[in-house]
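User: Some background: our group keeps a shared notebook of sequences we're curious about, and every so often someone picks one and asks for a predicted structure to add to the entry. Today it's my turn. The entry only has the sequence so far, pasted here. Could you supply the structure so I can complete it?
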Amino acid sequence: MKYTKETLVLTHSGAIEALSAAVKAAEELSVPQCIFIVDCSGETIASIRMDGAKYLSMHTARAKARTAASINAPTGSMAFEFGTSAGVASQGGVTPLPGGLPIRFGGKLAGAIGVGSGTGEQDFAVGRAALVAIGADAV
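Assistant: Of course. Here's the predicted structure to add to the notebook entry:
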């Protein structure tokens, strides 16, 4: 039909599985992380602040997940000026920081993950481990 489209929804079971894999990867790196998993609209499905993770990283991890869901792409590559403006306009809901990844199955967006409290590369590594655990498309 021309007035509808088929969408995918990440289940809470999938979010918990991804979250568990992300925590395990963070523990292997010895970097406590804040991790958010959101649906396509950016609403939180699951989250955790690991013992020792930075408090303010809760805010950035959620913004990373919401940004990745919104742009359907990894975070960290938008121009600084645009990212800063988008962050102000969205009251911190969007960020140019690295560590957010879309969660896609067969190319269709089902949600996103945002990781914060490590370096950008550590955050991405933890996020990618979550994607692998649930069989999502590699990013």
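Suggested note for the entry: The beta strands are 34-38, 44-49, 100-105, 108-116. The chain is about 40% helix and 20% strand.
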